[in-house]
Structure formats: structure tokens, C-alpha cells
Amino acid sequence: MSKSKKPKQRTExxxxxxxxxxxxxxHKDTWLNLDSxxxxxxxxxxxxxxxxxxLSPHLYxxxxxxxxxxxxxxxxxxxxxxKNWFNNHRGPDTLRRVFKFERKIPxxxxxGHCKRADVDERAEKLFANMTKGSKASLSQYQKALSAVMxxxxxxxKDTYEKIRTEWQKKGPPExxxxxxxxMTSNCATTCY
Length: 192
What we know:
Number of helices: 10
Radius of gyration: 29 Å
Strand content: under 5%
Mean pLDDT: 79
Order of helices and strands: HHHHHHHHHH
Helix content: 55-70%
Low-confidence stretches: none
Distance between the termini: 69 Å
Structural class: mainly alpha
């Protein structure tokens, strides 16, 4: 008969000295709210590591780390562990940022949507003899849009820039998404 093996008891293993994990937990929300990976890495490498270094200067002080290779190696492992801790404790997948390939939304697109009536009116005034939907009218529309953009004041440009950054973060409004989807599905049925 085979002997039944006892399941191994999982022991809570920690590499953190007293107070270090409290520092990590204190900075977790700030780290989560940073926008880019570069900002998060800089925050972890700067603010958090310095605060942890100050908790144990006799182990990780600058003089100790520079004078002792073993202490330097341990500090390098500690810095990597800090970064890993933040990545492991960032929460459920729904809170994680999803990496998407998105194109940047140009300011022209925002102005073209928000001031569509003005652009259409300008295009009709400038190019009354064009038929709507022809290839030539598309280039004339771009010229009319450029003219409308040139007429914008600095305050208007700032307003549209705020709208653009909001669209960049949250996506464009549903109306624009539907129009784009209709255009692409129409193209797919006529092109293929």
C-alpha cells in the first residue's frame, strides 16, 4: 500500500521588513491612479523606494549600498520586489488598464464634429458648383474645415482640445461611433 502524503501547509512567506508593506499599501491607490507605465515606474522607483530605504538606513542606506556589494544586490532585489508587489496588488482585471491599439484623435476631427454645420455652410459658400459626395467635394470639405479652424479663437481651441483629450480617454460619443461603424460596414459590403 502506498502511503498517503500529507498536503504541504502553505506558509505565509514575506520578504518585507516591519513597516515596509504598510508603506506599499499606503501608496497603492496613488500608483493605481497614475496614467502611464512610465509614471507608475517612476513613482515606485522614486517616492516608494526612498521611503522604504529610510525605514532601514542601516541595511539600505546609500553609503551601505555603495560600500557593500551584497547589500547592493539585496537592494536591487528589493527594488524589483517593490515593482512586482504593485503589479500583483493592482486589483481585479476589471480595474486593470487594457492595452489597445488606438489611433490618436486629431483636433480637426473634433472641430469637424462640433462645428459641422459651420463647415458645411462654409463649403457650400465657397464651392457652390460642386456636387455633394463627389471626390472633388471631399477635398473642398477639407479646405472649408481648415478655414473654420483658422477662424477659431484661442479659447475655442482650448475648449476643443479639452474635448479631444476627453474623447482620447473615454472614446468618442456614441453618435460618432455609430456613424463610423455605418461607414465601414457600408464600405465592406460595397468593396467586397
